[in-house]
């Protein structure tokens, strides 16, 4: 009897959860490889990926393709220190050597005069 009650209870809980569970997922153009840290700048969110790809979002959920970076490489990352943004990009320079490129600016917004 205990097994029947336990099974009935589990089925009831599963049915309830199936009706109330909500799945949140990113939307838009989210095709990116090795994304960097997501960082905000002037009410927008930015992330950068391998191959010079960037994504921009107004709300952090719906993403669109951003401008291509002037440097291409692998596994970029971005940090914000003081009034500057620093974007680091690894670049293969040979079979046993890799360089690190650094792009720095006061903003991540490509339409800004800064």
Structure description:
By secondary structure, the chain is an alpha+beta fold. The chain contains 1 helix and 8 strands. The strands form 2 sheets. The protein has a 5-stranded mixed β-sheet with strand order 1-5-4-3-2, with no helix packed on it. A 3-stranded antiparallel β-sheet has the order 6-7-8, with no helix packed on it. It is 17% helix and 42% strand.
How many helices does DSSP assign?
1
What is the CATH class? Mainly Beta
CATH fold naming: Lipocalin
> Which residue ranges are poorly predicted, with pLDDT under 50 across at least 5 consecutive positions?
none
The percentage helix is: 10-25%
- Content-based structural category: alpha+beta
Task: Name the shape in a single word.
Answer: elongated
Question: Roughly how many Å is the radius of gyration?
Answer: 22 Å
Total number of beta strands: 8
* Terminal-residue CA separation: 73 Å
What is the number of independent domains?
1
Largest sheet, in brief, is: 5 strands, mixed
Mean model confidence by pLDDT: 82
Q: Give, in order, the helices and strands.
A: HEEEEEEEE
Q: Architecture in CATH?
A: Beta Barrel
> What fraction of the residues are assigned to beta strands by DSSP?
35-45%
Q: What is the strand arrangement across the widest sheet?
A: 1-5-4-3-2
Quickly list its features:
single chain; 114 residues; alpha+beta; Lipocalin; five-stranded mixed beta sheet; three-stranded antiparallel beta sheet; 1 helix; 42% strand; elongated
